[in-house]
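Annotators were shown the component list below and the corresponding predicted structure, then asked to write short factual statements about the assembly.
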Amino acid sequence: MIRKITLLIALLLANSLFLLAQEQDPVVQAIIKEANENSQLEALGHELMDGIGPRLVGTPQMKKAHDWAVAKYAGWGITARNEQWGEWKGWERGISHIDMVSPRVQSLRGTQLAWSPATPKKGITAELVVLPMVKDSLEFVKWLPNVKGKLVMVSMMQPTGRPDYNWEEFATEKSFARMKEEREEQTKAWNENMRNMGHNTRSLPGTLEEAGAAGIVASYWSQGFGVNKIFGAYTKTIPTVDLELEDYGMLYRLVESGQKPQLHIVAESKDLGVMPTFNTIAEIKGSEKPDEYVILSAHFDSWDGGTGATDNGTGTLVMMEAMRILKKAYPNPKRTILVGHWGSEEQGLNGSRAFVEDHPEIVDGVQALFNQDNGTGRVVSISGGGFLDAYDYLGKWLNPVPQEITDEIETSFPGTPARGGSDYASFQAAGAPAFSLSSLNWSYWNYTWHTNRDTYDKIIFDDVRNNAILTAILAYMASEHPEKTSRTKAVLPISNRTGEQLEWPTPRSPQRKGGLD
Ligand SMILES: [Zn+2]
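Structure shown to annotators:
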């Protein structure tokens, strides 16, 4: 593993030799100038996140985003197309409105989960119940008739809505320790009870639905203030909604104290049957080696609790902006520069896996792929992905990148190939030199990733601009590189977990028909 210091020494040495040449490289200069003086990031971010909104697979908004991207590229003189690779359940989110109507009135903060069945137009009003503590599934089955006509609360009530960092700052050591211990015990008991019922979070809603429940009320706290993760519903006819921790806890306590709280839920949505799924592909044809490819990669889809601003709106913006800049600053690349805006990454890298399966000739011609998909932050780490010689070429390509950008980047070589996580894994599995441009955290995991708070206001445009410059220069350098890059795989290390030699991942087929049963 070669860390920052080693890279710095290498860069310094190289710098003394090439500094003059780099500073005068007119393409690098033009890239930086265009990115800084004519940035389109804010406008693109507004159009995509605020105008089009979240991009859940199978929704009309996803299709709208694909069409928008093609039109944007056309406007920049870049050829683009939407490639269909599969089909998904068609669904469109409508209004979610959740109110407590008894014992008092309060509007609640929550929303229906993706693919939730709709309520009747005027909504439903029903009493809440919580799950019983049972010793076995028999006892649970006996209890089940109690859910008839009721809204069932299926998540554990969190003991605190304050994230741990807040406790750490203000609590006495003793009370922080006690809270954590109690929470751990409560969680353990909750999970054990779930097993006793003979269920898990995935299987339970369907059983409650069959037993006549009126709806499912969940709360998936993301361990930050007011932030929940919003995924898909498991019910087929009754609505599933997620409530924010504050409201969920209040209702739970009201049930437990015998107040019989009632909710009025309006969840509108449209079942649209079957919808085609796409990747948006755009390319600037190579003038010397058109069959070799530098690929810019970022998934286009999102979950729909927020607007997918940092997962993966920002990765999308980086790649679109880099393409726009390259078309201006480097319009006749040696190799073809192709951008892939993949569909349905969130359900299992489906768009990129389909592309790898459908375009073996492109995968064979990959010079390098750069993927960005972990938030809005500036890139702080790049791994060689298990390619033995990546140190050599990636090091050269990073050389002309402004030092204020590379100073932040820690590299590790040769690294190991990914087994999932984002779309570069689909290409690495096929042996193509694909790399992840990994971002600074900016509270990604708790506050934006798959949450109801993944919105435009969380975007750090200076960091995204930084990433567009980095990506455009890397693409330029990869395109100009004298040789085709080596794909020699490093011998992988022994797994800490299994004690066995790690093996290189192999390509997996996408799910080409999803959400339909
Ligand atoms: Zn993502």
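Statements collected:
1. The chain is about 40% helix and 25% strand.
2. The two ends are 47 Å apart (CA to CA).
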